[in-house]
Every structure is written in C-alpha cells, then in structure tokens.
Amino acid sequence: MAQVVPAEGDMRRVIGDGEARPDGEVEGLGEHELLELYRSMVLLRTYDERSVVYHRQGRIGTYAIFWGHEAMQAGAFHALEREDWIFPSYRESAIGLLRGMPVETVLAWWRGHPAGWWDPRAFGVASIAVPIATHVPHAVGFAWGKKLRGEPVCALAFFGDGATSEGAFHEGANFAAVMRAPVIFLCNNNGWAISTPVSAQTRARNLVDKAFGYGMPGIRVDGGDVLAVYEAAREAAARARAGEGPTFVEAVTYRCAPHATADDPSAYIDEERVAAERQNECVGRYERYLRRLGVLGDDLVATIAAEAQDAMRAGIAAAESLPEPDPELVTRHAYAE
Amino acid sequence: MAQVVPAEGDMRRVIGDGEARPDGEVEGLGEHELLELYRSMVLLRTYDERSVVYHRQGRIGTYAIFWGHEAMQAGAFHALEREDWIFPSYRESAIGLLRGMPVETVLAWWRGHPAGWWDPRAFGVASIAVPIATHVPHAVGFAWGKKLRGEPVCALAFFGDGATSEGAFHEGANFAAVMRAPVIFLCNNNGWAISTPVSAQTRARNLVDKAFGYGMPGIRVDGGDVLAVYEAAREAAARARAGEGPTFVEAVTYRCAPHATADDPSAYIDEERVAAERQNECVGRYERYLRRLGVLGDDLVATIAAEAQDAMRAGIAAAESLPEPDPELVTRHAYAE
Amino acid sequence: MEAVNDALHVEMERDENVLVMGEDVARAGGVFRATAGLLDRFGPDRCVDTPLAEAGILGTAVGLAMAGWRPVCEMQYESFSYPCLDQLICHVGRYRWRTNGAMEFPITVRMPTGGGVRAPELHEDSPETYYVHTPGIKVAIPSTPADAKGLLAAAIRSPDPVVLMEPKVLYRSPREDVPEGEYVVPLGKARVVREGDDVTLIAYGGMVAVAEAAADELEAGAEVIDIRSLKPLDEETILASVGKTGRAVIVQEAPRVAGFGAEIAALLAEKAILDLRGPVLRVTGHDVPFPFWSLEEEHIPSPARVVEAAQQLLAY
Amino acid sequence: MEAVNDALHVEMERDENVLVMGEDVARAGGVFRATAGLLDRFGPDRCVDTPLAEAGILGTAVGLAMAGWRPVCEMQYESFSYPCLDQLICHVGRYRWRTNGAMEFPITVRMPTGGGVRAPELHEDSPETYYVHTPGIKVAIPSTPADAKGLLAAAIRSPDPVVLMEPKVLYRSPREDVPEGEYVVPLGKARVVREGDDVTLIAYGGMVAVAEAAADELEAGAEVIDIRSLKPLDEETILASVGKTGRAVIVQEAPRVAGFGAEIAALLAEKAILDLRGPVLRVTGHDVPFPFWSLEEEHIPSPARVVEAAQQLLAY
Ligand SMILES: Cc1ncc(C[n+]2csc(CCOP(=O)(O)OP(=O)(O)O)c2C)c(N)n1
Ligand SMILES: Cc1ncc(C[n+]2csc(CCOP(=O)(O)OP(=O)(O)O)c2C)c(N)n1
Ligand SMILES: [Mg+2]
Ligand SMILES: [Mg+2]
What we know:
Chain A is an alpha/beta fold. Chain A has eleven helices and seven strands. Chain A has helices at residues 31-56, 70-78, 103-110, 120-123, 136-148, 167-179, 210-213, 226-241, 271-279, 282-293, 298-320, and strands at 85-87, 155-160, 183-189, 192-193, 196-197, 218-222, 247-252. Chain A has a five-stranded parallel beta sheet with strand order 1-2-3-7-6, with helices on both faces. A two-stranded antiparallel ribbon of chain A has the order 4-5. The radius of gyration of chain A is 19 Å and the shape is globular. Residues 1-7 of chain A have low confidence and may be disordered. In chain C, 36% of the residues lie in helices and 18% in strands. Chain C has helices at residues 2-14, 38-42, 54-66, 85-92, 95-98, 128-132, 145-157, 168-171, 207-217, 235-245, 260-271, 296-299, 303-314; strands at residues 18-22, 47-49, 70-74, 108-113, 138-140, 162-167, 191-194, 199-203, 222-226, 229-231, 248-255, 281-285. Chain C has a seven-stranded mixed beta sheet with strand order 2-1-3-4-6-5-10, sandwiched between helices. A five-stranded mixed beta sheet of chain C has the order 7-9-8-11-12, with helices on both faces. The chains are: A alpha/beta, C alpha/beta. Chains in contact: A-B, A-C, A-D, B-C, B-D, C-D. At the C-D interface, α4, α6 and α11 of C face α4, α6 and α11 of D. The complex binds thiamine diphosphate (TPP) (2 copies) and magnesium ion (2 copies). One magnesium ion (MG) binds next to β4 of chain B.
C-alpha cells in the first residue's frame, strides 16, 4: 500500500541478489508477463546501445543515453493500460517502441527529420519533452481532463531528479493533488543532472519526501529492479483509477553512462561507482532472476536478443531511406491550414 | 527547538485565553520589549484602519488591508536584528514603519506617487512585492550573498498561503536549503488567496508540511499570538545565524477583512467565521495578556494609541503636501544616468 | 465587461468542451467579474478556481486540450501572465507543429491589459509584443465591447491558441449595445473606425479612443484604423489606407523599442514606400517601466501627442 | 568560446564581486566550456553550480546584487531562459527604477543563441526580441570572438542588467586572435564590418557572417553593419550608412513578426525616409518554431536570400 508520507527511507525491492537477499515475486505476474517485461527491457537496451553506435557513425545526432534505466522505464510502462498516456522526457525517447511506435520514427527524431514527430493520440505517448519538467503540467492537465470526462484513464510523467527543482514540477504536482488528477509522477533519480549531483539539487533526505508537501503518497523503489518499479507503478495506477489522485514514485537508479553523447563525465563522476553500477545493471539482474525462476534459458535469451537486433537493423534502414523532408514543410503546421 | 519535520500538527501558542489555557511567557522578553511589541502592533493597526478610511475618502488608491495580521508582522519583525533585511509583500506594506520609515513614504506608495519608493538599504526593507512569491528568491539570494561575505545577516520573506503554489516560492525555497541560506520563510496562512480558500490551494495537511520536501525545519504557530510568532521567528533567526540554513514558519491567521479595498468577500466568505475571528483579533488578545501581566493599563493604552494617531495624522498631511511629481521623472531611473 | 461575460456564456452554452479556468474565476466570478455566473450556470467542472500558479494554469491547459477540452484561461492581470511565457513559447505555440499538424490546441488566454486605471505597479503593462512575436500564437485586442465579445468568440472557436488582451479602460467603458447571442468577429480583419483622406492613425486596444480623440481635434481628414487582430494582421486594410493618405501615425501604449508599432512601420517601409509622403511616426509609451499612476498620463500616448505627430506629417 | 572564458577570468580577477552561477558551470565548466577553470581558480563561492531552476537563478541573482555581488548568470541554452522572463520583466528591469535610481542591479545574463548547430528542438531559438522590448534591460550580441570578449566585459561592468546572447555558431568559429587582458567593447556602438556605397546590409550575431557572404557575392558595393548592441542602439552609424547608400536590407534569424529587424526598419522609416531609394527589406526566419535541423537551412537566412533582396533593391 502506498504509505501516506513521510515515505519509508529505504527502497522497495523484489528481485533478490542471488545470495543473502531472497527473490520476491509480484502477485498476478505469470510467466508470459514476466517475459514481456524482459522483452521490453532488451528492446530498450538494444535501442540504446545501437543508438550510441549510430551516433558515432554520424547516422543520428546528439543522443541522450538511457543505459541502465530500462528497468525503470519498462517496469512503469507495463503497469499501464493501453488508454493511459505517457509523457516522456528526452531520457525516455524510445518508450513509444513499447506501444508499437516504429523504430524509424524515434530514430528520425534523433536525426532531426520531421518524420520524427508523431500524433500522440496514435500511441498514447506525448511528444518527447526537451525543456525540463515543463511536460509535468501537461500530464496533470490530461489526467484531470480525462477524469472530468469520466474516463478511467491515467497519465504517467517521466522526469529526473533535477526536474524536481523546477517551478513547473512544483506547480504541476500541486495542481494534481488539488484536482485529485489520476497521475503517476515517475521520478527517475539517477543521481545526476548532467554534472550536478542530487546532493547539490536538494537537501531533502529523499526526493520522495517531496510528496508530503503536496499531500500525496510517495513510494521509493530500487529503479534497477523492474519488478519493484512495476509493482509501485501498478499501485499508483490503481489509486489513480480509484479516484484517489496522484502518487509520487521515486525510482532510484544511477546514470552510469554520459548524460548524452556530447557529454564527458570524467570531469565530475566517480568512475569506480560507475563501474560498480554497470556490474549490477538492471537487465542482467532481471535476466538472472528469470533464470533462477526457470522461465528463461540461453535459447530464449538469444531469440529475444535477435528479435531486438533485427528491429533495430530494419529501423535504421527505414530511417535512412526516408526521403529528404520537403522544404515547403518548414513554413507549415505552426497554424491550422 | 525547530523540529526537523514532519512538523507538529497543532500550533504553538504562548498567550492564554484568560480562562482554561494559561498564559505562557517568552524567555528574555522584559517589560520594555513586551511594550515595544505592543507599540508596533498598535502602530500597524492604526495605519491599517486609517488607510481604509483614507481610501474611502479618495486620499489613497486601492489598498491591501492587513487588519488582524499585526501580530504576525510585529512578532516576526521584532525577532530580527537591525542588519537583517525584510522582503515584504503588498500585505506588509507598512512594515517599514517599524524601522523608522516615514508614514508618508508608505502612503505615497498607495497614492501612486514616486516618493513612495525608497532605498532598500536605508531601512533594510526591500520594495513592496506585487507579483506573488517572486520576491522569495530575492530574499534567498540576499541571504546567501551576505553569508558568502561572512556577514551574520539573515533575510525574512513574508508571503501568503496562495504564494506557496507558485514556482517562484518552490525554486526559492529549494535554493535556500541547498545553499543553506540564512532565510526565514514567513508564510502568513490567512486562509484565503482573494476568493480561493487554502483547501483549494493545496492538499497538504498543513502548509508547514512543505518544509519537509526541502529538507528544512518547519514551525507552525498561531499567527494571532504575537509572542508565539516572535519566539518562532527568533528561533529561525538563531538557526540562520548559526549557519544551519533556512526555516519555514507557518503563521496561521485569518483574513477577516476584504482582500483589498476593491474586494467584496460576501460572495465567498463565511461571515460568522469572520465575526468570530474579529472578536478574537490579535491586538486585543495581546493587550489583555499585558493587562493580566500588569504591565499595561488604561493610561498607557491611551498614550500609545494617541502616539499612533498622531503619527498617521502627520503622515497623511505630509503625503498630501508632497509636490506633484516632476513629469520629467517618467523617463528616468530605468537605466543608470 | 458584460460583453466578455456574455461571450463566455454563449460559447460555453454552444460547446460543452469549453472550460474556464483561472485564479478567482469561479467563487468570485473574476476580479473584473468577467466570469460571473459561470460557476452557477456550468458547474465546478467547467468553471474552475485554480491554485495560484499561472504557469500551472497554462501548462495544465495544454494537457486539457490533449484530453479534448477547449480551455479558456484567465490571467488576472497582464503582468501576471509573465510566469506562463515559458509554457506559451515552449509548448502552446509549438505543440500543433510538433505533431505535424495532427493535433489541435484550441487554448484561449484572456487577460486585462494596459494602463489608465491608477493601479499599483505591474497592473498596467502592455505586453502584446511578447505574444505577437511567438510563433504558433494568435493575438487580438478589442477596442469596443462588441469586438470584445466577437473576438473572444472567435478566439474560443479558433483551432489555434489565441491570446486575447482586454484593455482595462474598456471594462470601464459605458455599456454599449452589443449583438445578442452568437456573435463572432473573425481574426485577421482590421476595422476602419472612421474614414479620412489626409492621414492614417493606426492604433489598437485602448489607443483607438486616443486616436479618435486626436482625429476629432485635427483639421485635416484623419482615417482611424483599429488593427484589432495583431496576428494574423490585416495588411490589406492598412496598406489601402496609407496608399490613400500617404501619411501614417502609429499609436502604441507599450514601450517603444520592438513594440508592435515597429512591425506596422516595417510593413509600411516595405510595402508602402512609394505611397509615403513623409516619415512613419510612432507615438508610444517610453522605454521605461509603466510609471507610478500619478505620472501615467505622461507615459500613455495622449490625443495631443498624436495630433502633434499628425500635424508634423501634414506640414512635412 | 575561449574569448568568453578569457573575459570571465579577467573580470573575476579584476573585481572580486563578480560571481558566476548557473547549471553545470562549476564542476563541468559549462556545457560549452565557457566557465571552464573558474571553479579551480576562484573557488565554489564565486563559481556556483545551481539547482536546475532558471527563474531561481535569476531571482536569487537579484538578491545577490542587493548584497553587493555582480552575478553573471548562465542560461544553458536560450530556450531555457524562458522560465526567467518573469523575473526579468517584473524585477531585473524594474528594480533600479523602483528605488528611484538609488540601487544598482549589475546583473549579466549570458546565453548561447541561434541555430545552425543541428541540435534537437528548443536548442536553436533566437529570442532577442523578448529581451530588447523589456525596459531596464540592455542587450548585446557579438559576431566575433573579440566582441564576445569585449561586450561581455562591458556587460559585467555595466551598472545596468545586460542580456548577452552568444551565437552558437561563434562558439565553433576558428580561434581568432582576441586582445589579451582587459578588453572592453562599449555597449551602444555598432561596427561597420565593411564599407560600400550602394546598399547597406544590417545584421547582428550569426547573421553578420551571412551578410558578409552576401556582400562577397554582390557586384555592387555593399556596406555591412554589425549592430552588436541592440539596446542601447547606435542609430547614428545605421542612419549614416543608409544616408549614404539609400538602400537597406535587414537580416534577422528570429521569426519575422515583431522581431528586432522591425525596430530597425521603423527607425529608417522615421529618420531616413528621404534617403531611402526603395523599400526597407527584411530577410528573416519564418513565423514558425525553429524547424527540425534537417530543415534548418530553409529557415535561417542564407546569403542567397540576402543577395536576392539586395538585388531587388538595386534594381528598384
Ligand atoms: C528548462 C531546462 N533547463 C535546462 C535544460 C538543459 N538540460 C538538459 S538535461 C539537463 C539535466 C536534467 O537532469 P535530470 O532532471 O536529473 O534528468 P536526467 O537528464 O538525469 O534524466 C539539463 C540541465 C533543459 N533541457 N531544460
Ligand atoms: C503572480 C501573481 N499572480 C496573481 C496576482 C494577483 N493577486 C494579488 S493578491 C492574490 C492572492 C494572494 O494570496 P496569498 O498568497 O494567500 O496572500 P494574501 O493576499 O492572502 O496575503 C492574487 C492572486 C499577483 N499579484 N501576482
Ligand atoms: Mg538525473
Ligand atoms: Mg492568503
């Protein structure tokens, strides 16, 4: 149950460490669902790793890496229904893939091609938000608007630790609580805002403590534990649908890759910590869990990996064969025609 | 001691009710200080009541009434040292009087006369802030800047319950906590933002709960109890000077007058509640306390009242005898000359 | 003001997706009473008192539009709309484009504007330039109660976001007969307030009355044009008038530099250069903060200043 | 870029009240490396990584100025300065006036500006109009490394708030020799980049290079003027040039309507009307959001478009 704050200090976990800490399980998740979660994580991981390569090859522009955040993204995603909307930041640029968005669409976005825009209604995924936290009120307004229409839909907004410092986050969170909007605030606390550590971003013990000031429940989970994230988000979605309003979920991860392809973290980051985090990365943790559970073996791992690789190969090919955008396009779509 | 939140639900009080609840006392306050507090409250009350009359007489423009907030204002003020700066909102327009600002200066502000501006350095009082909450970061920057200079100075920002919904409040509060700026956030929770009740402003149990999300201590006091406000602000100032950073003080009052002379609350307010609050108004509560204590009698009450009346009479006369502003002034002072 | 209130009633009646939101718009019916009666008539779901956060108002309006609503946001005073410039520039003006034109964002932002009401600072600004310069946004400023109703209706029905700035001086204007029921003044059409052959006085909002007063004083025939819709702009009407008179005085209350009057002057310098018989003159507010109200007459363009400029042109 | 970094080192050395603050300016030395080395050299009190909140940065800078500091705020990209427009308009530009001129607010706001760098949306805007139109604010935009250093020094030393917009294309320009040590380019002075008698090409920031390229292609003698300081504006230099050539083409990357180019055109329409031998032409960005970068060449004025405008004038 989402505790009315002050939130628990320690993080919720489900996946054990294969040693001292035993594996838990999430009620209602059968083998099929468990494997779907895995497929999503692998697809995201593959998308991310390929994109970094494409960037080096000059096939896409600057790219915001999300390596190590796949559990946080996939776990939250799978807790939603198809009608629910997702409001991603640039860090979740590929979240649409999990809703069937073509790989080339997302790649086109990073290639600066207008085919990188989509109709949010087609996937229930809002446009990628570039300005920090400004999409948070959008998610709140959408959720509030759906509630006014009596539709049992909720909205999930992804944002980072740094985003919590912005007025836009604050105003959105407060509106959500006041309007009892069915929103899930999914804060990806990866420890860094580019070069600024979370310790220089806030004095709060934990980011989840912020929920208290809005009178909303907060949950703090291990963001590298896909099952813990899934369970927390599902709980938040249930509250939202039950008319109980918003929930703040702090998913604790670690940014063990550069902020973006343009960034060189060596100046500010602790390389040892990064190495340790990469060791304990979320896809591997979940894969080992599934193996311990006996639902995943070498063959299936290989198949799923191959599927993802194929999707990316086809995606980049399609993106690169998109015709040059029509120059006429530059003056269009700002206003109704 | 300022408790690290979650803050106590109930309000701190010092003044008793003359019946069941006994009078308390504040350590270090002698007869002289107690009477200074009273003088300040009477001056503010007189200023406010006269201003409403002046407005009716067309001698000043629209005016933001603060009747019933004198304890909150005077109590906080007297907890400060002369070097400390005050950042008032329009609701504390006359706070400068307590620092020796001429009455005509404040009246000139409400008369739309340039003589209503002052040099903040002269009184340690920033300009009256009209846009809600935007002065909060100013107080934070000032306090932080003084701290960087090693000067043991703190800043106090007055703002309302509605102001806590603005991004400017959030960003300022977060900066203050991160920079450990010596600031006192004095939130005058008078229950209303014009016609919007605090219940429609936030879902937080109490506004003081917001302190928790910034990792700063919060204190909730009865804003009609001048001694309780004084003690809380003094405690916050001590923390600030000790390098322990900001404190959020929620002073619970009630706006038992219209928002401003232009406002008609009858459409939205509970007249009975207003009547009850006016019954229990702060100046009378303190006066009865002082009488019970035996430090105040009819003569002194009369003298202090007369002093205040005289100050106002002289003030309005001076304001009205100010020469019409020089038309040349309209193009000056936007840039250095 | 009754005109604005009337328009809101009519449009909310007409389209159940229209939702009014802002500070003190419901319980109090707005500090200028523009939304009076809407709460009782349409209920708390469609007339909403929001928390005190302008960026939150406009930001949630974007989401409401995504959920199928047509939000009409009230900014209590023009100066309190500044916190939402971020949402306006980053999202309101860009989101349709961001969907390759697939989604509409029919958001209306209403705000009082201008001085002349003897109010404290930041209650008398004229910030239209910030809005007009922002791509994806349309901007209209009425100068009569009828236009206040008609332009608001057009804004609410527009598929694009519209900033509607209502001159405060207009709120105080005597109740003038306004068309009953549905009444729409299309965006993009200027209004020829009065015809004249010698000089064109171009104004909008509160300055239209100033231009008219100046026209009364002038011996020469002054044509007064009320721009009404700043974006889209009715270039035709302006060029036709200046083509006829060859003389143009632009009246703008906002600070001079990069004000909207400069865009009109630039239009004339580009497309009417052969018609001009003299310089294009701008009568504007000074490049200073709007002054304390005891000095506001020194700041706001006066009929006398407009007359002076026109005479300078006529004598050119 | 080295020029900006150099200026910051020199000015912080020169005046111990200068303090640099912003997102990622200390540990990382700025995403464009403009503040590299300042943390080590001047310590964490004078080079501060702030929380991620632009309005908080500028709002606290106002307070820092009250405490005697000269804050130099970095906005990571121009589009991320929009959240602080509220503080800029309500306070930064007004506070000195609010003290009847008694207090100074020597605040500098640095930001990269403009497109041409193939970045995601909201990394390529040109928002100078918002700043230029705001009373109490000064605005400068360099087009060379030397000016980037000199204008930044002037901004930091200015008693008034200055918004300094640094074209991103300039960051990538080849290291060109910049004066060593203290170097100040006074605000309010335009630069005649090259002389010519037939047509004046007026530009600023990234568009100066475009104007120069156009001048190279033109047969006729083109005079290229770099406005450099948008506010205060050097009217004299502009009027002298157009007085000579009688032809003016204004180049602006920002969206057209109510852009700063309109102010220049208005200036000419008012004060150079008898000199003009043809219309005042503006070559500008379109009134749309800055496009996805595969289309940015279609949006940013090109030398070809400038040449076309100039030829149209020469043939007029
Ligand atoms: C309003 C705004 N300011 C600054 C930036 C530049 N910027 C891009 S990412 C980033 C850090 C964001 O940190 P966080 O919120 O923790 O998200 P993360 O990148 O870690 O996922 C910054 C400052 C921006 N995009 N928007
Ligand atoms: C940014 C901004 N938005 C709106 C207003 C208009 N306004 C003036 S007072 C007020 C209510 C403020 O309520 P609160 O913060 O509780 O302070 P109080 O008036 O009760 O002292 C509003 C909305 C404003 N002054 N500034
Ligand atoms: Mg982060
Ligand atoms: Mg209040």
